Amino acid sequence: MCGIIAYIGSKNPSRVVIAGLKKLEYRGYDSWGVACFSENDVSIYKEVGKVGEYENTHVFENCTMALGQTRWATHGGVTLENAHPHVSQDRSIVIVQNGIVENYLALKEKLEKEGYVFRTETDTEVIANLLHFHRKKHSLFHAGRRAFDEIIGRNAIVFGERGGAELIAMRKGSPLILGIAEDGDFFIASDIPAFLEYTRKINYLDDGEMAVVRIGNPHELTVFSIASGNPIQKRLIEIEWNMDEAKKGKYKYFMIKEIMEQKETLRRVINQDEADFYDVVQAIKNAYGTFAVACGTAGYASMIGTYFFSEIAHKHINFTVASEFSNYVDFLTPETLMLVTTQSGETADVLEAMEAGTERGVKIVSLVNVVGSTVDRKSDKTLYLKAGPEQAVCSTKATTAHIALFLLLAYGVADKLAVGKRFLVDVASNVNDMLNPRYEEVIIRLAHQLKDSRDIYVIGRGISYPLALEIAHKIKEVSYIHAEGMAGGELKHGTLSLIETGTPVIVLTAEDKNKAAILSNAMEIKARGGYIIGIACEPHPLYDYFIKVPNIGFGFPVVSLIPGQMLAYHLAVLRGLNPDKPRNLAKSVTVK
Q: Residue 591 has what pLDDT?
């Protein structure tokens, strides 16, 4: 969940790394730091807070190479001492880490018996001293291999040595990407936007691999197996993202930019590789038991997908949160199919669920935004969202792309793919019509009314039930207002006791078989003084505030999620919050 970047090249390394850290703040932003290596020394600069708050940060001159990290605290509080980079006891080894060392206490105790003294509360300092311990008898390369073999948990580390001429990166379960520029510069980072302005040519480190970047003329990059120490040939990948997609442009925040980009991203979903798409459709048809597996927002998109499969294709799909999937392994057979959904392709709980499925011989199909990500590479087949880089922690355009792709798959399984494609074009056109200043003003007026609310409830029935969960998720994620989504029929089983005069309740009213029932639920709330906000195709006397969405059948979850996203965004802004970087959260959840 932290953001790592390291660089060896012709530019000022500390400038490149600090600029890269600013682009990685969505991954971690409690604190940050940069280390600059010179021929005989290493200099370190750290701060608590966001990189963007330090526009005039000291930049080191005479660097030969540099590394840095934006931290999302796991071990130890948010303090200057706990900020990365960390050093070994004698300051000879400098390291940044993303992940958790599950056995750090045992390793720390072992090192303390060897005379090591610890200055921080972090597990990263344990790795630094463990590297130093092995460095006494081995080269830095082999010290890294031995130290990493002792570490339990999902981790990515990058380290170098004072006076050294190489940076070493090692990965097990947490992403690291190598960027290779035309001018011979090399980058190591947690995510592509950190170096996208310099190159779109990349290698993904796989689990159990290490990369060594050496200063030279030219500089050199070699990838090795951690287990054997032997070199590995990697395939160079050129990604399709461009730098404009990774910049805010005219927008103040990435979140609103990415909401507005849904005009284009929904159309991109339709353009799937035909052979791959039909392979996935056939796999769903042939499966004996299918599990949709995801976390958070991707999980709610998957739940919406299960309704599509039921109502369009008459196909039953199970849904389970990835972190709970291990409880269902007894139901898995080689005839089972996993439909894995993830924006980043690096979510730790999803990867562990995939490992559990692979052990049982399950076939895995993934719906992923990031080409070449770990989930992509570990899947039997992948369909891509094509949403482009998403930098706000709160997912918007990738979410609607997930929903749209599930919709397309349901039509494919029903042998109505052409109908599904035409329908999605219509959905995208309706979204295009919605994303305009006049429509946004309707949402802004509502946000002014709700910005001081203590609670907001969102209810729906049928396909609108998981949509209610997702809209509530968006609101609480960025505005910090307690929001709760639920099936309308569950109100009378407890939540009605919380409704009082003025309590805002968003009622999702689709033009489907559930309309009468959800309006009846709205009446129950109204009778108890609740303030009813209708997201619906038509106004109704029950609504105190009406947000119109197109009457577009199965497209209702997409067109109704748009005002939910906008409301969450404007609530955050009106409350003086940064919607791109909600507290305690990070974009890629690469730790359990």
A: 54
The mean per-residue pLDDT over the stretch 3-28 comes to: 86
Instruction: Kindly report whether the peptide bond that precedes residue 85 is cis, defined as omega within 30 degrees of 0.
Output: yes
As given in the structure block, the two tokens for residue 199 are 């190159």
Residue 72: pLDDT over 60: yes
Closest CA to 23 of 266, 248, 265: 248
* Secondary structure (3-state) at 223: strand
Helix, strand or coil, per DSSP, at residue 249: coil
Percent of the chain topping pLDDT 70: 95
Return the SS3 of 307: helix
Position 174 confidence tier, pLDDT thresholds 50, 70, 90: confident
How many whole angstroms separate alpha carbon 583 and alpha carbon 30? 9
| pLDDT over 60 at 400, yes or no | yes
Considering the segment(s) 266-435 as one domain, its CATH architecture is 3-Layer(aba) Sandwich (3.40)
- Residue 558 CA to residue 316 CA, distance in Å, equals 22
Tokens encoding 161: 């040595």
Helices (H), 451-489: 464-479
Contacts of 572 (CB under 8 A, 6+ apart): 255, 478, 479, 480, 578, 579, 582
436-580 is a CATH 3.40.920.10 domain: no
- The set of residues, in sequence order, having a beta carbon less than 8 Å from that of 5 and lying 6+ positions away, is 16, 17, 20, 21, 24, 67, 68, 69, 187, 188, 189, 190, 194, 195
Nearest of 298, 355, 367 to residue 325 by alpha carbon: 355
Q: Determine the residue type at 109.
A: E
Nearest of 566, 576, 263 to residue 443 by alpha carbon: 566
- Please give the average per-residue pLDDT across 16-36, as a whole number: 83
pLDDT at 158 over 90: yes
Q: Examine domains 3-239 and 266-435 and report if their fold is the same.
A: no
Determine which one of 234, 397, 526, 587 is catalytic.
587
Residue predicted with more confidence, 296 or 586: 296
DSSP structural state of residue 205: P
Name every residue whose Cβ is closer than 8 Å to that of residue 338 and which is 6 or more positions away in sequence.
290, 291, 293, 353, 354, 357, 362, 363, 364, 365
Quick one: pLDDT at residue 442? Answer: 96
Most confident of 39-48, 228-237, 295-304, 373-382: 295-304
Phi then psi dihedrals of residue 506, to 5 deg: -85, 125
Q: Which of 2, 36, 63, 295 is catalytic?
A: 2
Could you tell me the two tokens for 559?
Answer: 């067109």
Enumerate the domain spans of the chain.
3-239, 266-435, 436-580
Q: The whole model's pTM is what? A: 0.78
Determine phi and psi for 62, rounding to 5 degrees: 60, 30
CATH number of the 3-239 domain: 3.60.20.10
Is the peptide bond preceding residue 218 cis, with omega within 30 degrees of 0?
yes
Query: CA-to-CA distance for 13 and 154, rounded, in angstroms?
Result: 28
Q: Within 13 Å, how many C-alpha atoms sit on residue 299's CB side? A: 16
Answer yes or no: 295 catalytic. no
Single out the residue of 189, 196, 144 nearest to residue 170, CA to CA.
Answer: 144
Q: Catalytic: 2?
A: yes
- Do the Cβ atoms of 349 and 323 come closer than 8 Å? yes
Residue 55 has pLDDT above 60, yes or no: no
